[in-house]
Design goal:
Layout lengths: L5 E3 L2 E3 L3 E3 L9 H9 L3 E5 L22 H4 L2 H15 L4 E5 L7 H10 L4 E4 L7 H5 L5 E6 L2 H15 L6 E4 L21 H14 L5 E4 L5 H9 L4 E4 L13 H8 L6 E5 L5 E5 L2 H7 L20 H6 L3 H9 L17 H4 L4 H8 L11
Parallel strand pairs: 3-10, 4-5, 5-6, 6-7, 7-8, 8-9, 9-10
Antiparallel strand pairs: 1-2, 11-12
Length: 371
């Protein structure tokens, strides 16, 4: 089957794949730039950018950025976008993933716009004010939704308030790393699986002018992409597979942890953000499951649902702190996110982005499918 190109606003990318945003420090300028260079959409995570260039931010004695202004650093994000575009050399698009739940959401959106991001992807809540922060800038907008109802609310609100609609929409099912747009128990029910959510979302998207719908969450292979395109999707967002690429911004220690994970090691977990998160069972997670509370106080004030650390204290950890430790390669104390299919990475190994894109577009055999 000949796979389609992907039109996003007034731009066309030759490859129908968006690399999912992964923070802290997993998808920054190196990965995003490499993906765009191959003609797809590379995405920088705007979460915790203060960890990338520590000399640009105010930090505590443990190296954690202090306050949301430094946790989500404008200077760091600007440098990342510029470097990613240099790597891309005019190919593909560079997007920024900005969680609705982060503190200073509006400011970070404006930061991404000023830095000339091509696309803003936003989930972990309904991005109802996203067009307000973007204004008249020529940047594509892509909300992440988990239902047709959510898409309807976004479209109604955007059209009424801002006379604007999404350029594309990403439907994310419950097999992603997270954060999930479902209640914990709903993540395991058939009616909330991606293939069962897609028909209603496609129908809703058609009602608003046939907005292109991309699928995410458990979409792993070229065969998966083909299946969903045949069902009406315009492409796919894929995240976890890009972790075990040479260009991924994660340290080699992080990649090796994912490469060693077994299916049973990947579990669904409650996050201070207020949504379920899928993580690898590591020593810190094991301790949490046994009742340990590893909260060390709120330093970054990174997400609003956490209520300045109150929710983190309840669940036993600060998400920014533990993701930051993971990016620094701390196996004992970090939290390592993975989609449900992450255990398959061991059969892929660490490969160049170019090779992975060729696998995902059917130009190379997929070593992870010989189960």
């Amino acid at each position: 089957m000949s796979l389609p190109s992907l039109k996003i606003r007034d731009k066309i990318v030759s490859i129908h794949i968006i690399q999912g945003g992964m923070g802290v420090g997993i998808s920054w300028e190196k990965l995003a730039g490499a993906v765009a260079k191959e003609g797809a959409v590379g995405v920088i995570s705007a979460v915790g950018t203060g960890y990338r260039f520590p000399n640009l931010v105010k930090r505590d004695r443990f190296g954690r950025p202090i306050g949301s202004l430094f946790a989500h650093s404008k200077e760091a994000l600007t440098i990342m976008i510029q470097k990613a575009k240099e790597i891309a050399s005019g190919n593909g698009l560079i997007g920024v993933n900005i969680l609705c739940a982060i503190t200073d959401y509006g400011r970070v959106v404006k930061d991404a716009v000023e830095a000339k991001a091509d696309l803003i992807i936003s989930g972990a809540g309904l991005p109802l004010k996203l067009p307000e922060y973007v204004g008249d800038a020529d940047v594509a907008l892509a909300p992440i939704v988990s239902s047709a109802r959510a898409l309807n609310i976004i479209c109604k609100t955007w059209q009424k308030r801002y006379n604007r609609l999404p350029d594309i929409v990403i439907l994310e099912g419950p097999l992603s790393g997270g954060h999930q747009g479902f209640k914990f128990e709903d993540c395991f029910k058939p009616e909330f699986q991606l293939e069962n959510l897609l028909p209603d979302v496609l129908k809703e998207a058609k009602n608003w002018g046939d907005i292109p719908v991309l699928v995410a969450g458990g979409v792993w292979s070229y065969q998966d992409i083909l299946k969903f395109i045949e069902l009406g999707a315009s492409g796919a967002q894929i995240a976890t597979r890009f972790v075990s690429t040479i260009e991924c911004d994660a340290p080699i220690s992080y990649k090796k942890i994912l490469l060693s994970a077994e299916r049973e090691d990947i579990i669904l977990f409650k996050s201070p953000v207020g949504y379920p998160l899928r993580v690898i069972k590591t020593p810190f997670i094991e301790r949490l499951l046994c009742g340990y509370n590893g909260w060390n106080g709120c330093v970054s004030n990174c997400v609003t649902p956490c209520n300045s650390g109150e929710e983190a204290k309840k669940v036993g950890f600060c998400i920014a702190d533990r993701l930051g430790k993971a990016w620094l390669g701390d196996y004992q104390e970090g939290i390592f996110i993975s989609g449900a299919n992450g255990y398959r990475l061991k059969k892929q190994g660490i490969i160049p982005v170019k090779e992975l894109i060729e696998i995902l577009t059917g130009k190379r055999p997929d070593p992870t499918l010989d189960e």
